[in-house]
Amino acid sequence: MDQLILAAEECDIANEVVCVPANVLDLFEFNSVPVFIGLGAVVVSLLMYFAFRKPKLVPGKFQAAIESLMSIVTDNIARDVIGPKGVKYIPYLLSLFFFIWAGNLMELVPGINFPYPSRMAIPLTLAVITWLIFVIEGIRKQGIHFFTDLIWPTHVPVGLRPLVGIIEFVSTIVVRPFSLTVRLFANMVAGHVMLALLLGSAGFFLLGVIGGDISILRGSIGAAWFVVGVAIFLFELLVGFLQAYIFTLLTAVYIDSSINPQH
Fold first, then answer.
1. List of residues 6+ apart from 36 with CB closer than 8 A
2. b/e map of 227-241 (b: 16 or more CB within 10 Å)?
3. What's 55's DSSP letter?
4. Rg (CA), the chain
5. Rounded Cα–Cα distance for residues 102 and 174 (Å)
6. pLDDT tens digits, residue range 11-61?
7. pLDDT tens digits, residue range 208-235?
8. For residue 19, what is the DSSP state?
9. CA distance 215 to 195
10. Where are the domains of the chain?
């Protein structure tokens, strides 16, 4: 009889179809995450060091690759979204992008297989920092009008202003940090779980065949799961980059709405 693979060490199989954490607050705890954060910082620092320790006027392939990644943030996000004022925020946006991207790629590193943005505390912290920046910049730039223009938007008919004002205020001040958090967290958790299930199931079926439980059906299922798992693995390379890009892009959009309200 096939054994059942469980995601938790202790689980009431009779009464629980899906095992749940003993404490939901585990999703918010850092635990060993600082080690992975430090590793990500070291990796990014080494990339920058080796790319720019001896910069060339005509860059080599490695320097050109890193410069292309940086230009995505400096040109396509900071300058194109925020405008000339976006230069001020380039250090934060670059740090944000590479921090998230390095963390996402750790999902694919053998022996680690854990993207630290899939720990709720990480995207929540980044979202709160972004929230503080665009709210503080909005107040600094617009003063009290930052809030009054949200509550009483003059660009809509008077009769709709109370309703639209409530929606705008809640979506801007309350929803934005949570939407940023959940978008990054959910995507990285989903990819991590899919890889674990597909490759874990493939190993379970294929090892059974290798161990002597010869079955064409079992081997076929294992091989199919392995192929799909490899496809998801490659897809997660793209997803890791896109999630870092989207989070950084939305940060720039929110900052732009605070310092350039006419946009």
1. 103, 106, 112, 114, 116
2. eebeebbeebeebbb
3. -
4. 23
5. 28
6. 554 554 445 556 555 555 545 778 888 888 898 899 888 888 887 877 788
7. 545 555 566 666 777 777 787 778 778 8
8. -
9. 24
10. 28-259
Per-position b or e across 58-82, b if 16+ CB within 10 A of its CB: eeeeebeebeebbebbbeebbbebb
How far apart CA 174 and CA 171 sit, in angstroms, is: 6
Residue 16: burial class (beta carbons within 10 Å; 0-12, 13-18, 19+) = exposed
Q: How confident is the model at residue 8 (pLDDT cuts 50, 70, 90)?
A: very low
Query: What does the DSSP assignment read for 175-223?
Result: IHHHHHHHHHHHHHHHHHHHHHHHHHHHHHHHHHHHTT---HHHHHHHH
In the numeric block, which tokens belong to residue 136?
């503080």
> pLDDT per residue over 183-205, tens digit each?
888 888 887 777 777 777 776 66
| Distance spanning both ends of the chain, measured CA to CA | 64
> The dihedral of CA 237, 239, 240, 241: what is its sign?
positive
Q: What whole-number distance in Å separates Cα of residue 122 and Cα of residue 139?
A: 26
For the record, the structure tokens of 151 come out as: 């509550």
For residues 34 and 46, the answer to whether their CB atoms sit within 8 Å is no
Residue 108 zone, left/alpha/beta (φ > 0; ψ -120 to 50; rest): alpha
